[in-house]
Design goal:
single chain, 95 residues, alpha+beta, four-stranded antiparallel sheet, two-stranded antiparallel sheet, 2 helices, globular
């Protein structure tokens, strides 16, 4: 429980494109997570200025990535807080 409180605090304070090492919090399936802002230099209005997250799990051969996905598309959020909430709901709550 102490690990989860510290992890939630770190997620709350993380800045764009800074990684959080989830191994130090004994997370069972993910190694690290990074929150990003998409489309800063893109002309694509669908993703411009929207936020998302990417996490990495440790497979035996190399890191593989985990995105918030609905169907075949990566989900973007209007705010950084929304992206953080989605990650917490998807991978932290109930662990």
């Amino acid at each position: 429980m102490i690990y989860i409180k510290k992890l939630l605090k770190e997620i709350e304070n993380v800045k764009i494109d800074k990684e959080i090492n989830l191994e130090k919090y004994n997370h069972t399936s993910l190694v690290k997570v990074r929150f990003t802002q998409e489309g800063l230099i893109s002309n694509d209005e669908d993703t411009k200025g929207k936020y998302s997250w990417v996490a990495y799990n440790n497979s035996y051969y190399s890191y593989s990535t985990v995105f918030p996905i609905r169907g075949q598309y990566v989900i973007f959020f209007k705010t950084l807080i929304g992206a953080k909430r989605n990650f917490i709901k998807s991978y932290i709550e109930g662990r």
